[in-house]
Amino acid sequence: MAKATKKQALGRGLSALLKDPENDIKSAEDKNADKVVGNIVELDIESIEVNPFQPRTNFNEESLRELASSIRELGVIQPITVRKLAFNKYQLVSGERRFRASKLIGLEAIPAYIRIANDQESLEMALVENIQRQDLDPIEIALSYQRLIDEINLTQAQMSERVGKKRSTIANYLRLLKLDPIIQTGMRDGFISMGHGRAMVNIESQIDQLEVYEKIITNKLSVRATEQLVKNLNSETPTSTESDSNETPKYIKKGVKEFSEYFGHKIDVKLAKNGSGKITIPFHSEEDFNRIKKLVKRAK
């Protein structure tokens, strides 16, 4: 307990030091910088601004209220991190949820680590810190990786070292940005998983992506069923004919395409010489069979 009291007293002392214009710190080489940088300091909340480089855009209101309730009871257990902008003016690097929750309950001060960083360093710290979080959605993570590439000029190999993730993992996230924006929004809102998204990335046409996305939502397809659906759509049309004619009639070609899109599988059509034929609808599991059965009933 005595140790905690001493640390808090030190924090208040540093806060007073920072409010003295004559001891203003602008760089790591300034007088008293070693006393402040890396230590916990109590800062006025009003002296802190949010980070314009913040990669996270969604802050769940209910989750914030729960965090605010916890802070009201126990205080801010983990300090936020800020960088110094000017005299008594700071900018968040990480900890925006704690910052927002603290403001929500009317706290006047918040414990913080002070860093000396330029815009690029601040952006990189914010992006890397956010990538490490467990509650980010896949698109937020993908956008963070992309910003590290575009604005920090990091290669995938360098990102792998900075965030401790395999290059293949980073590449899989980045590929999600090839999805239609509607599908990206669906992933952010939890309608589909990253597994669904990874399967649809293999569809080049965004129109076809949206058609598959609609089938996933409508039929509540699993990731495995979605992978099979995409595989079937990307494969060559298996339409065959028992006719001596080398050219499949147009009505068959058109019908096969419509059937395939409706059932989510490539449909096999066998055509005899007399014009009769047989349509085969494949299925890959009990779940898939029941899905097709519902589609047949719906078409009646």
Q: What can you tell me about this protein's structure?
A:
This protein starts with a helix and ends with a helix. It is elongated, with a radius of gyration of 28 Å. The chain is an alpha/beta fold and 300 residues long. A hairpin with a 2-residue loop joins strand 3 and strand 4. It has three domains: 116 residues, Conserved hypothetical protein from pyrococcus furiosus pfu- 392566-001, ParB domain (Alpha-Beta Complex); 42 residues; 65 residues, no CATH class. Helix content is 52%, strand content 12%. The longest helix has 17 residues.
Could you name the key traits of this structure?
300 residues, alpha/beta, Conserved hypothetical protein from pyrococcus furiosus pfu- 392566-001, ParB domain, 3 domains, five-stranded mixed β-sheet, three-stranded mixed β-sheet, 14 helices, 8 strands, elongated, disordered N terminus
What's the quick description here?
With 300 residues, the protein is an alpha/beta fold. 52% of the residues lie in helices and 12% in strands. It is elongated, with a radius of gyration of 28 Å.
What name goes with the CATH superfamily of the largest domain? Conserved hypothetical protein from pyrococcus furiosus pfu- 392566-001, ParB domain
Structure classification = alpha/beta
Return the CATH architecture of the largest domain.
Alpha-Beta Complex
Write down the CATH class of the largest domain: Alpha Beta
Order of helices and strands: HHEEHEEHEHHHHHHHHEHEEH
How would a textbook summarize the main sheet?
5 strands, mixed
Detail the topology: elements first, then pairings.
Blueprint lengths: L1 H17 L14 H4 L3 E5 L3 E2 L11 H14 L5 E7 L2 E6 L1 H9 L4 E7 L3 H13 L6 H14 L4 H8 L3 H9 L5 H8 L5 H7 L5 H14 L3 H12 L5 E2 L8 H14 L4 E4 L5 E4 L5 H14 L1
Parallel strand pairs: 2-4, 3-5, 6-7
Antiparallel strand pairs: 1-5, 3-4, 7-8
Helix pairs in contact: 3-4, 5-6, 6-8, 10-12
